[in-house]
């Protein structure tokens, strides 16, 4: 025997990464469906050229083509996959979001096997269409919010969390009857308003491109990430900036009111940062809600997937009990440790510190075999309003 010392590498001791598909997006929108790409035919594309090869061209499907071009214009979307499905112009937003409609958004979600995390939905009705109620937005938009909420809630309960963004199509830009998203109760649904062209089409590609290129905790309106690659933006056919060469031309002056109401749209910061930026990432719920923003919702969705996969591994496992039939403290500590480790390994950048796990040490599982724990994520904070007090320095006062 030759005397020697050996060091062997042990693998699988710290847990592997968990796939959560944070950046996978999808879009269901109105199309013609008369070319290579038919209606109700889900496809996944990874570039503009790929989309064109599958039938999404400027000639055959101009709205879908604009979506992919704007999506892939966002830095960081190179080769990012996005799912697309076309529906007919007669299909309402309410119908397409209905959880019982097999030919609605459910069809695209199923095609992607529940991996889409943020889904855009839009409708461009046929010429001559008249909403049931005449107001600022097409009445179909607000009616679709609770329907989309039901769909997204069911997805979360099925451990495939989803956020839905609805294109808020403007019906009458002169109407003062405006829906207010922040007074609704759907924290998993958002309304996107406005577009880069004067045609009433919502620029959902810019929004989903931002989602596809950023971590869950990053607000799509983060100024440090740079301005949007656009030169104009319209609300209901009116530009949001005044034409300095033609000051008398009509322009939309209420953009800040839309931002305050809770719409996802764009704005500028005059004399600050040049260009257009997303104003914020609000959802259709009160600002006091824990998930009032897309970013916080995406973070909790990621955490839910990780927690579910961790505890799935513990199902039907046998655990040691103490003399009082409670789970042994060492077992509880081990469960706490594996949860914290998995979250830190997979999403530390999206938290402000270690997650907190609460476990009741007096759980008797002999009768129910049910184990309960509470998991709390330390969320990020966001500098949404910055107040600066400016004055001259006085050594006798400061």
UniProtKB/TrEMBL annotation:
InterPro entries per the UniProt record, alphabetical: Phage_HP1_Orf23
Record's protein name: DUF2586 family protein
Record organism: Mucilaginibacter rubeus
């Amino acid at each position: 025997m030759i005397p020697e010392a050996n060091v062997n590498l042990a693998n699988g001791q710290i847990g592997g990464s968990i796939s959560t598909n944070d950046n996978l997006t999808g879009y269901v929108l109105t199309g013609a469906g008369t070319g290579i790409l038919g209606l109700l035919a889900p496809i996944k594309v990874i570039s503009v050229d790929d989309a064109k090869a599958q039938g999404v061209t400027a000639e055959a499907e101009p709205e879908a083509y604009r979506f992919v071009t704007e999506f892939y214009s966002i830095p960081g979307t190179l080769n990012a996959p996005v799912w697309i499905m076309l529906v007919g112009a007669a299909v309402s937003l309410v119908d397409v979001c209905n959880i019982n409609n097999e030919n609605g958004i459910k069809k695209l979600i199923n095609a992607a096997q529940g991996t889409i995390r943020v889904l855009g939905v839009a409708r461009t009705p046929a010429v001559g269409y008249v909403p049931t109620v005449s107001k600022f937005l097409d009445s179909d938009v607000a009616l679709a919010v609770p329907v989309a909420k039901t769909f997204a809630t069911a997805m979360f309960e099925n451990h495939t969390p989803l956020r839905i963004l609805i294109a808020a199509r403007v019906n009458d830009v002169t109407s003062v009857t405006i829906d207010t998203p922040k007074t609704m109760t759907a924290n998993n649904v958002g309304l996107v308003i406005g577009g880069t062209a004067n045609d009433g089409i919502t620029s959902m590609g810019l929004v989903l491109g931002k989602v596809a290129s950023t971590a869950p905790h990053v607000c799509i309106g983060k100024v440090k990430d740079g301005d949007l690659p656009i030169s104009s933006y319209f609300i209901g056919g009116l530009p949001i900036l005044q034409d300095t060469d033609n000051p008398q031309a009509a322009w939309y002056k209420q953009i800040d009111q839309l931002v305050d109401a809770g719409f996802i749209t764009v704005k500028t910061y005059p004399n600050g940062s040049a260009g257009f930026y997303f104003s914020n990432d609000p959802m259709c719920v009160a600002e006091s809600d824990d998930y009032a923003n897309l970013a916080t919702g995406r973070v909790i969705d990621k955490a839910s997937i990780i927690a579910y996969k961790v505890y799935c591994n513990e199902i039907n496992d046998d655990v040691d009990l103490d003399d009082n039939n409670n789970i042994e403290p060492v077992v509880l500590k081990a469960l706490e440790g594996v949860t914290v480790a998995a979250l830190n390994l997979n999403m530390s950048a999206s938290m402000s510190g270690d997650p907190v796990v609460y476990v009741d040490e007096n759980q008797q599982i002999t009768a129910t075999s049910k184990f309960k724990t509470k998991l709390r994520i330390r969320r990020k904070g966001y500098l949404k309003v910055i107040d600066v007090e400016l004055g001259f320095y006085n050594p006798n006062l400061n």
